[in-house]
Amino acid sequence: MKRVLAVGGGGREHAIVKALARGGADVFVAMKNRNPGIARLARGFKLIKETDVDRVVQFAKESGAELAVIGPEAPLEAGLADRLLEVGIGCVGPTKSAARIETSKKFARDLMHRYRVPGNLRYAAFDNFEDARRYILDLDHEVAVKPTGLTGGKGVKVQGEHLKDIPEVLDYVREIFEKGIGGAGVVLEERIQGEEFTLQAFCDGRSMVPMPLVQDHKRAFEGDVGPNTGGMGSYSMEDHLLPFITKGEHEKAVEAMRTTVAALHKEGCPYQGILYGQFMLTSTGVKIIEFNSRFGDPEAMNVLPILQTNFVEISERIVSGTISLASVEFARKATVCKYVVPEGYGMQAKADRPIHVDEKGVEMSGAELFYAAVNEESGRILTSTSRAVAVVGIASHLEDAEKACERALRFVSGEALYVRHDIGKKEIIQKKIARMQSIRK
Ligand code: AMP
């Protein structure tokens, strides 16, 4: 049996570990919190900081791991894949150099520019405030302000949304340099408007195989309002597209990803792992918001449960450079994922409250449950300030998947919890279709 190291203890990683275990692997997990779902599935686990490369590599060696799947981005930036490769452990997760597609927004935009990746945006990158200020005062369009490096998904501010006017744009850019947010450096991109969607792909260095499209909901509250979060829930459709997107537009997103994978290969940093593309469908076509160097969270929980091919085999193909379209299959099912979060998540979250899950009830509802940022302590499961558990309804049609998700949510209880119930419902999807129709006009 294959011994596989998995890194990370969130909802995304619970989905990864479940897929690996389903594929017959003995899974050993390095995670910082005691995720009860992962702990139960794993042959062994160790509570370690995921960016502590020395200790993770040591644990991988002790466990006899032959392969590793790295969940979050921070260990990739810390060079975990490079170190595992050095000791002969193949990695689903790019090297530090290839992960720059996520860890440096400047690297990503420059690469897309040099290789003419379709859907790139007008942008400029700065390493000091004065130059950025001069550029901003000359602007004739609105911008999105992005710290160059990793900020845990909380660094991007958009003019017209989070930033009211040019003085506010300047204030935020100054703050990025003064506080060194994301490593001090800023990318200013043209602001675009439209519907966002996610395309994830398995990449083996040269080739890539796309997964079904997913739409996440970043805003904290129903109706897509409130502060941005890590993602409150997501859905995918039985035809693997989304209701507001055409086949041609999907093809454009795939082409952008293929061109990027080829560019990284040409640059001498072949990309082996999961590539995540965040796109926006606008009045002028499909545009790239950003790339991430790992599965999305929640998006991993939409695609992995309907993966029909053995995920261990796919991981081996990623590592050996033998992935092909014919080697990957997904069930033609729809999925709806809703995250149960502590009240106040996205602002001031109420943490350390017990949460109860009746797993049998969830299963009987036609749903799967993934534990996220919770901790198991003396038989109790406690919430943290981040997302607690995700429930994923799976069915042949979206409507039934949404109903299954809601049925299953009744088996999750606790105090001070919040769920965005609108995700996957007809009303919000109709609104997105109508919005896209008016943008297209
Ligand atoms: P990111 O961290 O790059 O995914 O950005 C977070 C969010 O900011 C995205 O999901 C978008 O909603 C928004 N955003 C990022 N870049 C732009 C842009 N160039 N124009 C408009 N909105 C953007």
Layout of SSEs?
Layout (H helix, E strand, L loop, with lengths): L2 E5 L3 H12 L3 E6 L4 H6 L2 E4 L5 H11 L3 E4 L3 H4 L2 H7 L3 E3 L7 H4 L1 H10 L8 E4 L2 H9 L5 E5 L9 E2 L7 H14 L6 E5 L4 E11 L2 E3 L4 E2 L2 E3 L3 E4 L4 E4 L10 H20 L4 E12 L2 E8 L7 H4 L7 H10 L13 E9 L12 E3 L1 H6 L2 E5 L2 E4 L2 E4 L5 E7 L2 H12 L2 E3 L2 E3 L6 H15 L1
Parallel strand pairs: 1-2, 1-4, 2-3, 4-5
Antiparallel strand pairs: 6-9, 7-8, 7-9, 10-11, 10-16, 12-15, 13-14, 15-18, 16-17, 18-23, 18-25, 19-24, 20-23, 21-22
Helix pairs in contact: 8-9
Bound molecules: adenosine monophosphate.
The site of adenosine monophosphate has 13 residues, from strand 17.
Task: From the structure above, extract its key features.
441 residues, alpha+beta, 6-stranded antiparallel sheet, 25 strands, binds adenosine monophosphate
Question: What does the model show?
Answer:
This protein is 33% helix and 28% strand. The protein has 441 residues and is α+β, with helices and mostly antiparallel strands. Strands 12, 15, 18, 20, 23 and 25 form a six-stranded antiparallel sheet that branches. A five-stranded parallel sheet has the order 3-2-1-4-5, with helices on both faces. Strands 6-9-7-8 form a four-stranded antiparallel sheet, with helices on both faces. Helix 8 (129-137) packs antiparallel against helix 9. The longest helix has 20 residues, at 247-266. It is globular, with a radius of gyration of 21 Å. The model has no long low-confidence stretch (mean pLDDT 96).
